[in-house]
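User: I'm writing a short methods note and want a consistent example. For WD repeat domain 75, I'll paste the sequence; you return only the structure tokens, no commentary, since I'll be parsing the reply automatically.
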Amino acid sequence: MFLLCASGESVKVFSTATEECLHALQGHTDLITGVLLRPSNHLQAYSCSLDGTVRLWDFTDGILIRTYSIGYPIYGIYASAKHEGVIFIITPMHTDTNSELFQLVAVHLPQCGEQLVEAKELSAVLSNISSNPAASAFGREGQYIVSAKPLQLEVYFFKKHKSYSFFLKKDNQKGGKNTFTCITCHPTEDCIASGHEDGKIRLWRNFNHRKEYTYSTLHWHHSAVSSLRFTPEGTNLLSGGVESVLVQWRYNQESQRDFLPRLGGAITHISVSPDGALFCTSHSDNKITIIQSCVKVSAVIQGLVKGDRIRTDLMIEPRSKALVLNGKPGHLQFYSLQRDKLLYNLDIVQQEYIHESGLEQFEVVMAAFDASGSWLATVEERKQKAPELELNLKLWAFDDQKQSFVLNTTISAPHEGRITALCFPHVSDGQTTMLVSTSRDGHFKAWQLAAPAHTEDEGPSWSCDFLGAYHSLVPECCCFSADSSLLAVGFQEVVTVWTPASWELLTTLSQPPGAVRDLCFGRLSCSKYLLGATTSRLLCCWNLLTCSLEWVTSMDVSLLLADPLSENMAAFCFEAGSTDLFVFKPGEPRPLFSHKALCSGRVTHAVFVPREVMLESCDEASQWLNCSHLYFLTQSMDLLTFITKAEEDKLTASSKQLVVSDDVAMTPFHLLLGKHRDQLENPQAESRLSVEPIRQPSSSAGINELLQMPAHVLPSASFLCSMFVQSLLISVNKPSEQNKEKEEEMESEKEEEDSDGEMESRISRPEHMPSGESGCAAPALTKEEVRELRRLKKLDHSWMKGLLD
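Assistant:
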């Protein structure tokens, strides 16, 4: 069974059994707002987008069938089997894209064979409706369509061509908020279920008459109901909300309920398979949960966990090369970039998170790994006000047996103020024994890994080794040099350089006015440079050999980072509402790469990810990507990266369908796959017996393509194996008789050589025949025809003699 999910500008097709992504249906140029199965063919699906198009897909093969151009942004799509050839979409009432007035429009899809079709027959059904797709639904096999406004329910009947409206008061007597949030309709009965902001569910009946309608109320959710869905038979009603609990109500027996709690983030959408065997919930943390009809989780598809905001930096865990950042509340997520899949969540806070707005809870705000991946440092805090701030600094050691991080040391109130920076020295060959933290209390601390004080202690732990300050200024950032021999700490407008060996202040660096908010040492041949971004929109570069300012340029740098495997540095600059990217070497005047208007808003999180294999052949504009990838996170929580032209071509080639060309080597797999095709191309060709072994090439494109196909789309292994083995066997009919005939022929060949010569001489033209009679002479027989005549000569015709007598 397949699961279709809108993901940005593409539709992802997942297998509900393996949780793997089978296809990514790409073609839209803006955000996809709806995905819908085609009522007349459940192997095809519609998708709509803000780009003003509706696309029809064959999602099993990942093929785009047709594109319908509407010309207006589309916010939702609906269809019914009763209205064949017609879809219903939500579009703005005015051409202005910022308009807050929307309408439901019926679109008659043209029936033609062209790839791109312009839909011209549009007719408005309902006006001034909500743009939320969950606020509209078809009812009772397409007889009517319902749309919910903030305090009004509107029902349009297609037979009557009339719409009835039902109103609610803003607040009821008990103070509840009656605002509609979502609706759904019973598949076979006249019943509408509506969800409301106060957590109540209302079941509307008898709405065929404007004044005689009734409704009953169900209540379990303590916050707004975000999604409702009836099962295909109409026996159950599913509801979900911020509590992350799926509630299953028995229709007409609402007192009987089933609950599935602790599903993760808040439930944003509920879907049911056409046969009712599976339920599906999507969550605010970018997760999809597949649930069996017996209310039991069967699979989880987890993408990059999306929270309210990312407080930590983007980090790479040195052991698994996984991307690490904030995940679920109180957790760090470890995400595999290669597999595009969540590996696991590490519980940092180790407290149950309560989904209630306004409740202050511990939050992971900072984290850092050492160079070898043996230690992880985290900072968690609660309460935003400084006098009531609670801080915890935790050190985690990697456990080889558990293959995860285990809590080693917890330091309560490590500083008197909020921690502003956290960093380990770059010691990759030896064991990490130091951690530095800076705080708004005006100090930076060096934490040292010390041996246990008593023999009965379990192991080493961390403690404060040095406390540093500079003229009561507040340190905002810190950074170790590439060889860890220097530590730079930015105290507002002053940059101080320390030696960790003796904690001696070596020098202070000056710059134009403005507080330093980011520091970064150069790498490799540029290790003598120290770069810093200031609040006065300046990027400064100091030469540590001369302790002087090397150069300064005017740019509003929101993020500065260095590639660990090269001299390259990346600066994300905010200008005119968008972010520009500059990649440069500190010792060269011109940037290696620049990209204007990379994305809207500020980029505050990015990371260089070292490649497993360094690229060799790369064009000049992309040489800065030879050693590492650059990933960055936008304000809309989209994780983006840069790729080279060669990598783009490789991705394009891998997305193509499996096509076996004519020049593929003759292999057993080719015989298995190309048997029917060859028979269609050469219907008169006869199979011939060959005793020569088939030469196996060192590498075959056909075999590679077949083995790269997903396992769930292939036949069973036993079926495929039997076909493959049969293709290797030599097909021989009646072997005993044929072998006997061959032996007789071989024995008689020598005995009848003379007779063969005589026969050939008789059928050949005599030399003394006149030239005029040569055209009437019989043509010479082939050797096979001679053998056939000889075989007929040996047949026993005595039975014919008996008939003649």
